[in-house]
Amino acid sequence: MRYPTLSEILDKMDSIKNGHFKDSPLEIDWDRSLENRKITIKANLIEPQDIEGIADFLKKDTTRDAIKRLFSYL
């Protein structure tokens, strides 16, 4: 591995993403070089009421904790 520390951090972040956001209504991503400290969250809405499900998902303590854990690696 050329950058073992970077690879390890990305593996941990991918694990969080796949564990918590896999079946969620959101797509979550970040700069894979870890140079920019930001997380991008995208949502696809099909119906106007879909916003309620997304808001409920974002309100969950587990979702907030997962996002905080992702930020801890940035």
Question: How would you explain this protein's 3D organization?
Answer:
- There is one protein chain.
- Helices cover 53% and strands 14% of the residues.
- The two termini are 20 Å apart.
- It is built from three helices and two strands, in the order αββαα.
- The chain has a two-stranded antiparallel sheet with strand order 1-2.
- The model has no long low-confidence stretch (mean pLDDT 93).
- The protein has helices at residues 4-20, 50-59, 61-72, and strands at 26-30, 39-43.
- Strand 1 (26-30) and strand 2 (39-43) form a beta hairpin.
- Helix 1 runs antiparallel to helix 3.
- It has 74 residues and is α+β, with helices and mostly antiparallel strands.
- The radius of gyration is 14 Å and the shape is elongated.
Short description:
The chain has three helices and two strands, in the order H-E-E-H-H. By secondary structure, it is α+β, with helices and mostly antiparallel strands.
Structural class: alpha+beta
| Share of residues in helices | 40-55%
What is the CA-atom radius of gyration, in angstroms? 14 Å
Distance between the termini: 20 Å
Main features:
74 residues, alpha+beta, two-stranded antiparallel sheet, 3 helices, 14% strand
Helices and strands, with pairings:
Blueprint: H1 4-20, E1 26-30, E2 39-43, H2 50-59, H3 61-72
Antiparallel strand pairs: 1-2
Helix pairs in contact: 1-3
